[in-house]
């Protein structure tokens, strides 16, 4: 059923090694150029990082302004309120009823399975199975 897969690739050659072979010159060039720039302009880079940090801290407070005050066109807000509450309640009731029915079916199935696993069935077991069948029919009816 299962067959062992044989591969002829060398074990030291992985996908990562192939990618490094392909892109190593570009990565080295980027690394050297960025280290040259950072060693030549450390104060400028530090200042840019501090400005970016301040901007990221202040942005949430600045962006909370009312768009009408800034002159930006405001899109009309859509009304997401519930239009028909009785229909929603009816839908939720049917979902909860279905969940209750499913829970009852699962418990009946577990009890029926335990009874059917017995070697000999008594008369009480037969009556229980008939009642379980009737209960399942009642659950199935709308």
Strands, helices and their partners?
Layout: H1 15-40, H2 42-62, H3 67-70, H4 85-116, H5 123-140
Helix pairs in contact: 4-5
What does this structure look like?
This protein is an all-alpha fold. It has two domains: 51 residues, no CATH class; 56 residues. 71% of the residues lie in helices and 0% in strands. The mean pLDDT is 84.
Q: How would a textbook summarize the main sheet?
A: none
Which shape, going by the Cα principal axes? elongated
Relative helix content: over 70%
Average residue-wise pLDDT? 84
Main attributes of the structure:
single chain, elongated, 71% helix, mainly alpha
Summarize the structure.
The protein is an all-alpha fold and 142 residues long. It has two domains: 15-65, no CATH class; 85-140.
């Amino acid at each position: 059923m299962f067959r062992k897969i044989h591969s002829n690739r060398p074990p030291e050659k992985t996908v990562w090694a192939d990618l490094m072979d392909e892109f190593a010159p570009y990565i080295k060039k980027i690394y050297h150029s960025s280290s040259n720039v950072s060693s030549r302009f450390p104060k400028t880079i530090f200042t840019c990082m501090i400005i970016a940090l301040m901007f990221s801290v202040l942005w949430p407070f600045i962006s909370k302004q009312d768009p009408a005050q800034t002159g930006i066109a405001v899109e009309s807000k859509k009304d997401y309120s519930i239009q028909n509450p009785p229909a929603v309640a009816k839908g939720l009731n049917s979902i909860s009823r279905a969940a209750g029915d499913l829970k009852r079916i699962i418990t009946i199935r577990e009890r029926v399975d335990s009874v059917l696993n017995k070697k000999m069935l008594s008369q009480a077991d037969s009556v229980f199975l008939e009642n379980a069948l009737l209960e399942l029919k009642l659950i199935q009816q709308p």
